[in-house]
Amino acid sequence: MIFEQLTEEIPESGAIILQAVADRAQQLFAERIANSITVDENGCWLWNRFTDRNGYGRASVCGKYILAHRLMFNLLVGPIPEDRPEIDHLCRVRNCCNPDHLEPVTREENMRRVAAANTCCRRGHSYADHAFVNSKGDRECRICSQRVKSESQRRLRDTGVGPRASWTECIRGHELSGSNLIVNKSGSRECRLCKNERQRLRRRRSAKS
Fold first, then answer.
1. Distance between CA atoms of 63 and 190, rounded to whole angstroms?
2. What is the mean pLDDT of the chain?
3. Is 56 in a helix, a strand, or coil?
4. Does 161 score more than 70 pLDDT?
5. What's the rounded Cα separation, in Å, for the pair 200 and 8?
6. Helix %, strand %, coil % of the chain (to 5)
7. What are phi and psi of 62, to 5 degrees?
8. Buried b (16+ CB within 10 A) or exposed e, 117-135
9. Does the pLDDT at position 58 exceed 90?
10. Cα(39)–Cα(90) distance, rounded to whole angstroms?
11. Exposed, middle or buried, 35 (CB in 10 Å: 0-12/13-18/19+)?
12. DSSP annotation of 169
């Protein structure tokens, strides 16, 4: 009952108080974001808090982790265009979130730029000799992929526990439980919502080609 009274029409004095609370919350949010960024000599805004395994910064907003560079683009530039849904780092620094270094592009253009810029995987294997395109449409190193698969199978064989066994949420913040949890053949846990989204995007790309 109290919540309804505070969210329905209230007197001017109450509105002033709520506006002050909102302004303070916005100030605290801006301060937290600013303290999460370090500017380097090249003008990159480096996200100095949590980064995922791919090196991209992730920010916690309303209890969910989102990509820091997409957050900053939305905050300082505007909505990401629907026809160019991916953000390319022009500086090639993955944890940079400087809007001047970011450009909305199509997935095809983003992949083309990544392929042109990267000739080796993170472990130094040449893409010219060892690259393949995975089910998501991304380029991967065959040697590294086989190594990860072998380690996952060995861990499952030795311990009976697959990778990400301790995770309670996927990297996009979806809860890994109940009908949203998928355990694949290797024992790895997957998010059903994210998997369905990847399949939807693949069907959309197939329909366009």
1. 20
2. 83
3. coil
4. no
5. 39
6. 45, 20, 35
7. 55, 40
8. eeeebeeeeebeebbeeee
9. yes
10. 16
11. exposed
12. B
Answer whether 107's CB lies under 8 Å from 85's CB.
yes
Q: How far is CA 60 from the centre of its chain?
A: 11
Residue 69's identity, in one-letter code, is H
* Per-residue model confidence as pLDDT tens digits over 4-34: 555 566 677 777 777 887 888 888 889 999 9
- Residue 160 pLDDT > 60: no
Which residue matches tokens 């439980």? Answer: 177
Q: How far, CA to CA in Å, does 141 sit from each of 130, 170, 201?
A: 6, 24, 22
Is the distance from CB of 122 to CB of 103 less than 8 angstroms?
Answer: no
pLDDT, tens digit, 9 for 90 and up, residues 69-115: 999 999 999 999 999 999 999 998 999 999 999 999 998 998 888 77
Residue 42: pLDDT above 70? yes
- Among candidate residues 122, 159, 154, the one with its CA nearest the CA of residue 141: 122
Residue 104: partners with Cβ closer than 8 Å, 6 or more residues away: 73, 80, 81, 84, 85, 86, 87, 88
Encoded amino acid at 30, one letter: A
178's enclosing H/E stretch is: none
